[in-house]
Write a structure and sequence with these properties.
Layout lengths: L17 E5 L3 H13 L3 E5 L2 H10 L4 E5 L7 H11 L8 E5 L4 H9 L4 E4 L4 H12 L8
Helix pairs in contact: 2-3
């Protein structure tokens, strides 16, 4: 896991993080989106890595939650392209969301430019911890 940047965010609704959720499975997408919204996030969704890269280029996000295994473009390639594009300001956290947690899978996530890994099945407290670690955002329930 990489070191989270120093960022402080107030816990007001106006300061809710804007996140991009990239997930190809409709059930997982619906569940993750609902969990993130309940934590106070503003969530945009993409169905594959290619769409996620396009949305990242067009939008301004505080974090990206990225599935690894997707059609069209997987999360590893999407993370690489986002990192290659660079950008101004602090490094945008890309958090892998995956069921694969073997050491080789973790190495592949970090090598592609992802900053953290959370595992499926999806749990609200794990999303809340990632938001606190990477965005400095304390969810209303965690404040």
């Amino acid at each position: 896991m990489q070191t989270a940047p120093e960022r402080a965010r107030p816990t007001t609704e106006a300061a809710a993080p804007r996140v991009l959720l990239v997930e190809d499975n409709p059930i997982n997408m619906k569940l993750a989106k609902r969990l993130l919204e309940r934590l106070g996030c503003r969530v945009d969704t993409a169905e594959n890595g290619e769409e996620g890269v396009r949305m990242h280029q067009a939008g301004s996000y505080d974090a990206i939650f990225m599935d690894c295994q997707m059609p069209v473009m997987d999360g590893f390639e999407a993370a690489r392209r986002i990192r290659e594009a660079g950008g101004e300001g602090p490094r945008l956290p890309i958090i892998a969301v995956t069921a694969n947690v073997l050491p080789d899978d973790q190495v592949r996530c970090f090598a592609s430019g992802m900053d953290d890994i959370i595992t499926k099945p999806l749990q609200p407290n794990v999303f809340a911890e990632a938001l606190a670690r990477w965005c400095g955002y304390r969810t209303p329930s965690a404040a």
